[in-house]
Design a protein that fits this description.
Layout (H helix, E strand, L loop, with lengths): L11 E5 L4 H12 L3 E6 L5 E2 L6 H10 L6 E4 L14 H29 L2 E6 L12 H21 L4 E8 L8 H5 L1 H10 L12 H8 L10 E4 L7
Parallel strand pairs: 1-2, 1-4, 2-3, 4-5, 5-6, 6-7
Helix pairs in contact: 1-7, 2-3, 3-4
């Protein structure tokens, strides 16, 4: 039965930033599909690891603490809003450290386990700003463009060894990161008017795409950046 191909029973899924927002929605969806979900985060997670400070060795140690990882979802990310001419060095570095460096080191550590086991699924979280430049978020846009490129590069190396690496690019989703945009009446109206679906998305709107990319139903899907955006990019 085709629906059985979407089940994740018996698989261990590691989700970063899963305590709230999109990450919580991802963790819930994976659990409902049958996976054993392990959360990685700064505090209050199954595996505690501060992606901003852990570095390659700390991240590797966190992943190695697990007996197995069948699915990795790189959801954790931060944003710093500032005109580019005024952006500080620390703000730039902080965003790239969490949104890109940590993503690579998590992919590397989990990928080693998956390659040794003969297969696995990695889903990175990209963005509309993997395709566009945005305004006042140069570091975030740079990091998310890089995540899209990293996803494709890893897929090229690992697809033939049973590890599927893909990404989801959420559109404008109601989360803490987008709260400043929703609080600005002019920006909120301008964004909302451009979304063909007529509304901002919710974390639940991303659940089906995630489960698909993590499942056997996506066995021949490699290196894609799947936009779940209410039609934003088509406009």
């Amino acid at each position: 039965m085709i629906l059985d191909a979407f089940r994740l029973d018996g698989r261990v899924a590691l989700v970063t930033g899963g305590n709230r927002g999109i990450g919580r929605g991802f963790a819930t969806a994976l659990a409902e599909a049958g996976a054993e979900v392990v959360l990685l985060g700064r505090t209050g997670a199954d595996v505690e690891c501060d992606l901003a400070t852990a570095g390659p060795a700390g991240i590797a140690a966190a992943v190695e603490s697990l007996d197995r990882v069948d699915i990795l979802v790189n959801n954790a990310g931060i944003i710093r809003r500032s005109p580019s001419a005024e952006m500080s060095g620390p703000d730039w570095d902080d965003v790239l450290t969490v949104n890109l460096d940590a993503v690579f080191h998590l992919c590397q550590a989990a990928g080693r386990k998956m390659l040794a086991a003969g297969g696995g699924r990695i889903v990175n979280v990209a963005s509309m700003l993997s395709f566009q430049g945005g305004v006042g978020v140069a570091s975030y846009a740079a990091s998310k463009h890089a995540v899209a490129g990293l996803t494709k590069a890893l897929a090229n190396e690992w697809a033939g060894r049973g590890v599927n690496v893909n990404a989801i690019a959420p559109g404008y989703i109601e989360t803490d990161n987008t709260a400043p945009l929703r609080a600005d009446p002019a920006r909120f109206a301008a964004i909302s008017d451009r979304i063909p679906a007529g509304r901002w998305g919710t974390p639940e709107d991303l659940a089906g795409a995630l489960v698909f990319l993590c499942s056997d139903a996506a066995a021949y899907v490699h290196g894609t950046v799947l936009a779940v955006d209410g039609g934003w990019l088509a406009r």
